[in-house]
Design brief:
Rossmann fold, alpha/beta, 14 helices, about 400 residues, binds cytidine-5'-triphosphate, 21 strands
């Protein structure tokens, strides 16, 4: 999958550096060539010998290494790579990058190239949450760097929270996503997914049975064809795919704001099961049982995200795809829905309980476009997603 790709792997100084040894292995299993760079702090956690033995090549450590300079030069080192991966990316390395420092080999390599960079941050939770690190994160994102992790969990320092480096598997998926040479390379696609939760009070909410499986599968399939995917997801049961930009939201209104922020995009796929209504005035205190009778909930209509985006005068994605969950008269209802919303395609499915589709692993869809209705055979949600992603690629190419 990564055959012929060249990764420059910068190993920073953190306890997670040991995971980068495993990452080298995994990258090589996929056919990639890895050139390792070890910072001084990194060498306190893993030895140059283990890194070079695993990579099967010399590890680069010093900025002023005359032999290396004579052989290839540090500038060449980063420019010949397809991707620079910084794992672990410490708070210090992030700060240096954000400021443009070039006072050691790693920071010089990062500054001396416009090759894409992927960072896997790892640090103490307080360091991660510190405004300085968050500022640097934003600055690096604005400069075009991509991130994988950090994950939440217990840390070597005994604290709990975000700061653990992503696992080698996750970093590998993110690398594959960045290097994918598929037909959607260079295309930015927005995907909404999952249910929304509409609060009644601070502890109760109204939800629906969507697992988020179909939306996650679509995002994964688009990623695999090389798209840059922004994945706006409600509180779903399934984990979001690796290698996509995840924007977690709860309610329909939050989802709409996140979608607007994610635009512009070449295409939008709206797979979320958005609640049509929210409780008009959700209480900010827990509702109590009372002698005066049962609570009465009043509803207000939620924004129709698909409709709003489909009907945008400026900045509408070139292709807008909606989903239609129907329990009866699927084609008629979905065809009318396509017209009403103004989207280009509707992926319609029968979610009546007997089909077992909602929350299940299979789907049977009908693709409705201006060319009419096309029935796809019942198959796994992953396969439906692959087929849809290929159709999207063909439409965006044409
Ligand atoms: N959708 C949306 N925002 C909403 C409601 C729905 O973006 N507030 C999107 C869904 O993501 C899906 C499509 O609209 O792509 C259709 O969703 P569905 O629930 O089937 O349709 P509704 O508009 O809710 O119509 P109805 O409930 O009348 O069937």
């Amino acid at each position: 999958m990564l055959a012929g790709k060249h990764i420059l792997l910068i190993i920073g100084g953190g306890i997670a550096a040991y995971k980068s040894l495993e990452l080298i292995r995994r990258l090589q299993d996929q056919g990639a060539r890895v050139t390792p760079v070890l910072t001084r702090a990194g060498a306190e956690f893993v030895t140059p010998l283990s890194v070079s033995a695993l990579a099967g090549t010399a590890v680069h450590q010093e900025l002023f290494d005359l032999t290396a300079e004579a052989e290839m030069g540090h500038i060449q080192l980063s420019r010949s790579a397809d991707l620079l991966v910084v794992a672990p990316a410490t708070a210090d390395l992030m700060a240096k990058m954000a400021q443009g420092f070039a006072n050691d080999l790693a920071s010089t390599l990062l500054l001396a190239t416009d090759t894409p960079v992927l960072l896997a941050p790892a640090m103490n939770v307080r360091m991660w949450e510190h405004p300085a690190t968050q500022r640097n994160l934003e600055a690096l994102k604005a400069d075009g760097a991509s991130f994988v992790g950090p994950n939440e969990g217990s840390m070597a320092c005994g604290e709990f929270g975000p700061g653990r480096m992503a696992e080698p598997d996750e970093i590998l998926a993110a690398i594959s996503a960045k290097l994918a040479d598929g037909p959607l390379k260079g295309k930015r696609i927005l995907v909404t997914s999952g249910p929304t939760h509409e609060p009644i009070d601070p502890v109760r909410y109204i939800a629906n049975r969507s697992s988020g499986a179909q939306g996650a599968a679509v995002a994964r399939a688009l990623r695999d064809l090389g798209a840059e995917v922004v994945f706006v997801t409600g509180p779903a049961e399934v984990r979001p795919p690796e290698g996509v930009q995840v924007v977690p939201v709860e309610s329909a209104r939050e989802m709409e704001a996140a979608v607007q922020q994610a635009l512009p995009a070449d295409a939008g796929v709206f797979a979320a099961a958005v609640a049509d209504w929210r409780v008009a005035s959700a209480s900010d205190r827990k509702l109590k049982k009372s002698k005066d009778g049962l609570p009465v909930l009043e509803f207000a209509e939620n924004p129709d995200i698909l409709k709003t985006v489909s009907q945008m005068k400026k900045g509408r994605p070139g292709l807008v795809v909606g989903f239609a969950a129907e329990t009866n008269d699927v084609i008629e209802n979905a065809t009318a829905k396509r017209k009403r919303k103004g989207c280009d395609w509707i992926v319609a499915n029968d979610v009546s309980p007997a089909t077992g589709i909602m929350g299940g692993s299979e789907n049977a869809v009908i693709l409705i476009s201006d060319e009419g209705a096309e029935e796809w055979p019942r198959t796994g949600k992953d396969e439906v997603a692959r087929k849809l992603a290929e159709r999207i690629a063909a439409a965006l190419a044409g």
